[in-house]
Design a protein that fits this description.
Distance between the termini: 26 Å
Strand order of the largest sheet: 1-2
Order of helices and strands: HEEEEH
Radius of gyration: 12 Å
Largest sheet: 2 strands, antiparallel
Oligomer: single chain
Number of strands: 4
Shape: globular
Strand content: 15-25%
Number of helices: 2
Structural class: alpha+beta
Length: about 70
């Protein structure tokens, strides 16, 4: 199932043109000055919790959702 077919989400997505947040959550590709594809999780206070680099996270939405769920429930 593709991301666009997955429906509503209970978590937020972020656009970061300056790459400052990507740097904070370990998702910045320094060589190419762009973001890696994947997911990062911040807590309600903005503290970094977890990241996972995966070029196919949107195509693997069920596995990605499970990974996020598992990380939030540790």
């Amino acid at each position: 199932m593709a991301l666009k077919e997955a429906g509503e989400f209970t978590y937020s997505f972020l656009s970061d043109e300056s790459l400052s947040v990507l740097d904070y959550v370990h998702m910045k590709d320094e060589e190419h000055q762009m973001s890696y594809r994947g997911v990062s999780i911040l807590d309600e206070n903005g503290e970094y919790l977890f990241h996972h680099i995966n070029d196919h996270w949107g195509e693997q939405i069920e596995e990605t959702a499970q990974l996020i769920y598992d990380q939030l429930n540790e």
